[in-house]
Sequence to fold (299 residues):
Amino acid sequence: MYAMQTRAVLASAEEMPLIDQLKADGYLVLRGAVDPRAMHEIHDDLRDRFARTPFCKGDFYGTKTKRFGALLKRSPLIADIALHKMVSRVAELVLGPHCDRVQLNLTQALQIHPGEMTQAPHRDQDMYWAPKGAMEYLFNVMWPFTPYTAQNGATRIYVASNHRLELGAADLPPPIAIEMDPGDALIFLGSTLHGAGANRSAAPRTGMIMGYGLGWLKPYENQWLAYPPQIARHFTPELAALVGYAQHRPNLGNYEGQCPSVLLREEDPDFLEAVDDVTEDQRAALAAFKQQQTANQAA
Fold:
């Protein structure tokens, strides 16, 4: 009864070229996606945390790189970025056919300092131990706070690598550095091979990543720990649903058999009745099965 399903999601005439480019090349740059002043203000909100956050440990994250998450509670301006209209449409068009709802996979601020080496090329979808190629599991959006250049470690993309999943960096054409300014956004698929470049400049390269994934997958960042009910109840319903306070049919991610949004009420619920939340075809199958059982009992 719980077979994998897909649903039709159609792009508009204006959206189709962008989605076609994203699927063909594995990435898409939105120039001037937001007012640069918003990025500068978010950067200002995060400066103290950048200053106090220690450098990462490990060859993947980088020993001269700083990272931290849970950004929605660190700047009031980030909510609008998470719900950006075009990014939301990309989520619906790329991920929507394969899930009942899209979820936030992570928010992460990052700062690559001078002397950091090139990051190992990787595909973000490889965090999931599942067959690859039938669908996209996630995509990420890079939002720069400072200019991204080839010199200071701009994200390096292996163009069209999303179509050649069996190949690694050594077997593909050289990557291109995606240079951007604050206000621009880089969208890249979870199947796209990529990595941060080396910072050979004299100043840090600073920005943030927002990731979106299929609603039935475990997210990279534990959203319920990042935003417990006492924090999430101050989010808009749309944002709360995006971070996980919404049930994914059939009954996935529930709390006491109900949508976890019940935890966002002013009074915490205690005794609750479990409520079906299934797809329409599952509801029809359940009704037919019940009807057959009733007929059998009457015979």
